[in-house]
Write a structure and sequence with these properties.
This protein is α/β, with parallel strands linked by helices. It has helices at residues 17-30, 45-54, 64-88, 99-109, 114-125, 140-153, 166-182, 196-212; strands at 6-11, 35-39, 92-96, 132-137, 187-191.
């Protein structure tokens, strides 16, 4: 697993990304690798401040263009202050969400141009993409139930997107699947239904197959 590099976890709300991120980092460290775990929006003081602004409150508090620019601003700081320095020092990086979420939420969800999002990413972030993105695929109805329950149980004020209807979240799911289909060489789609230990086992098996492949490619399903 030498030279694993930059990994991201994507999926709808409630798909279990946070738990899988922790499990994946432990798995890599068990192989003797050193790295960092981070999240978006967040990862830096600037990004965490933007996170508190953009994930809370009523849905209409931000215009979609403002939302996109805030997400991108957080990513600029994240890449320059966390991701690139870690990679340059030989560490791996595992991020809970990255630009794939912006394409899904602000693109497919909000109806903004994917070309605009990708061009903005290329011009201001530097066109930095993960070596591998793991998409946790789940029925949005189940995901929303899980996410809303977690936010309520843990008293977390980050439920702005959970207030949106099921159709919005179905567009998000389809976008993640479309992104994976368009770039199979750097995506793995894993069924995120069922108990966490089963999902974890699926992810680790798929990841190991990718990491051990000579050209880091998985055969098309």
């Amino acid at each position: 697993m030498e030279g694993v590099g930059f990994l991201s976890l994507e999926g709808i709300d409630g798909s279990g990304k946070t738990g899988i991120v922790r499990a994946l980092v432990e798995h890599l460290r068990d192989q003797g690798l050193d790295g960092v775990t981070t999240r978006e929006p967040g990862g830096t003081p600037q990004g965490e401040a933007i996170r508190s602004l953009i994930l809370s409150g009523a849905d209409d508090v931000w215009d979609p263009h403002s939302e996109l620019l805030l997400m991108t601003a957080a990513r600029v700081e994240h890449v320059r202050r966390v991701i690139l320095p870690a990679l340059r020092s030989g560490q791996f990086v595992v991020s809970d969400r990255y630009v794939g979420s912006t394409i899904a939420y602000q693109g497919a969800g909000r109806g903004m141009s994917e070309r605009l999002i990708r061009n903005l990413h290329a011009s201001v972030v530097g066109d930095v993409w993960p070596d591998l993105t793991i998409v946790l695929d789940l029925d949005p109805e189940i995901g929303l139930q899980r996410s809303r329950r977690r936010l309520s149980d843990e008293v977390i004020d980050e439920g702005r997107f959970e207030t949106l209807d099921l159709a919005f979240h179905r567009r998000i799911r389809q976008s993640f699947l479309d992104q994976a289909a368009d770039a199979r060489h750097r995506h793995i789609v894993v069924d995120a239904s069922g108990p966490l230990d089963e999902v974890r086992a699926r992810v680790m098996s798929a990841f190991d197959a990718w990491a051990l492949a000579p050209d880091r490619r998985l055969p098309a399903p």
